[in-house]
Batch of 2 targets.
Target 1
Amino acid sequence: MAGMKVLIVGAGGREHALAIGLSESPSVESIHTCPGNAGTSMLGINHNVSATDVDAIVKLATKLSVDLVVVGPEAPLVSGLSDSLRDRGIPSFGPHSEGAELEGSKLHAKQVMEELGIPTGGVQILKSDSDIDAALSRYSSPWVIKRDVLAAGKGVVVTEDVDEASSFIQDSISTDGFVLLEEFLSGEEASMLVIMDESGFICLPPSQDHKRVGEGDTGPNTGGMGAYAPAPVITESVRQRAIKEIVNPMHHHLRNQAIPYRGVLYVGLMIDDEGAPSVVEYNVRFGDPETQVTIPLIESDLGEMLLAAAEGRIESYQPIFSDKSAVTVVLASEGYPGPSKTGREITGENTRIEEGEISAFVHQAGTHRDEEGKLLSSGGRVLSATALAPDLPSAVGAAYAIIHEITLDGSHYRRDIAYRAL
Ligand code: AMP
Ligand code: GLY
């Protein structure tokens, strides 16, 4: 399809990366984003509609007569945005609400994996304070405790501290009625993003996120402090195993549902020392910041690819991937991942590097412009510096060269992104 009008839902670095990829797609003529950020406003029109207001998004998509809606975050998918859009004949990239339960409920995801024999850690459901000591003693430390709610990465605690484990369990039971205690999986994590519909699937280049706030993977979990792709921990044999043991059975399950899954399935993997993959989590959307390193590696028309999946004909799409390496380094506000200081001025966001095969630039996330046109921070993760190069060390060097040009009072970033692969 040529001359496509696309509506992107969301406001983060992921959505800016999608907007750039779509703006470079020959099939795409115009881009709308709701609500978007200062980065997406340079590529199309931002609309003041919240990413969680399903009715308002459906109205906007109808009014604009868009050819495709691309949904960034999980919350509107769980609330049924794709169901409503499809009812009105508008193609939506993102699963219907039932498919989105793979992320919406960690317990549901575990039950589906168990039914399909997909490798993952064991789980116990705790409903009462009196179970805690016995439950903790069944698994060795560190303990992995997960609330069964959408909590933007904040509903999970991984700790070796028995008191912290007990109190998080107690608090979660009192707010939610139950909590999950999971077996700890050791190894190296990686993210496999799989574009999927009933006709087939395409695995995008595997990436690795850095979830902890501090260097050497220390400190509290965040939404992700940086990423790189391809991740060498996913060797060809690990990839084949993950497809056979994890992606194929899930695809077979989802394609046979009454309403097929159309969108991206994010498979969060743990690869153990023997190269055996198991599932840490499923998400039903693109990862952030994984998207910032994945989209630039897709050389074929992104708009055509997302539309093909939204219409259930991904099998006929022939992707072309770059053989370069990509890296992104997130710059976060003071305080992040706790309460963040926002409303501070940012400079340097237009810095670019174009040197032979190396290119680097900024993906904006929590940013907006005030009436005078000043760029201000408006979220925990403010932007990320992304670089593409023929090899990973050159990409890392270029991403940090961009980061050093940005000013934002009190901001912080990790200095060791991609260290596992260097
Ligand atoms: P989740 O929201 O389920 O992805 O969990 C957030 C992060 O916690 C993951 O990216 C892992 O780093 C860590 N984590 C979650 N579950 C486990 C597990 N079973 N074993 C080890 N680490 C885990
Ligand atoms: N980067 C982790 C996520 O998007 O869930």
Target 2
Amino acid sequence: MLERTLVLFKPDAIQRGLIGEILTRFEKKGLRVIGLKMRCFERATLEEHYSVHKERPFYPALLKFMSSGPVVALALEGKDAIEVVRKLMGKTNSRQAEPGTIRGDFGMSFSNNLVHGSDGPEAAAKELKLFFGGAGELVDWKPATLEWVYSIEEELR
Ligand code: IDP
Ligand code: MG
């Protein structure tokens, strides 16, 4: 199914100069970038984004970390994009993430794990609205490579 998902590059990714490396992984995979922005997001936005973890012991530290510097927000589209992105990211604890994944290749930390990706369709819808809810913020465009990234017979019908 054609899906949209939200990715965040966390402050550690920005501070370590990994924006390009990480963005390249998603682009090369064949996911379509339909929204991209860099901000120091307001605390209220980040609180809302992570509200499912409100009761967890790591929540205050997570908010402090996420508001410690600029964050890149990325909206991606593709077949099964939510699961594909989660696989590219790797396990939450970077030390346990498989080599070849973003966290597995670039991270050593549980909390400073470089990227966020929506974990399901409901979360994706909520998070896309939160970070790209304004008019015209998501761009609908057709990549010239689309019919080469997917098989026309199997996936593009
Ligand atoms: P996810 O980012 O892989 O979906 P979640 O369980 O949704 O992982 O947790 C959100 C974020 O909170 C993680 O990416 C990580 O930055 C942080 N986090 C989660 N669990 C822990 C923990 O046990 N210790 C420290 N940080 C944690
Ligand atoms: Mg999560």
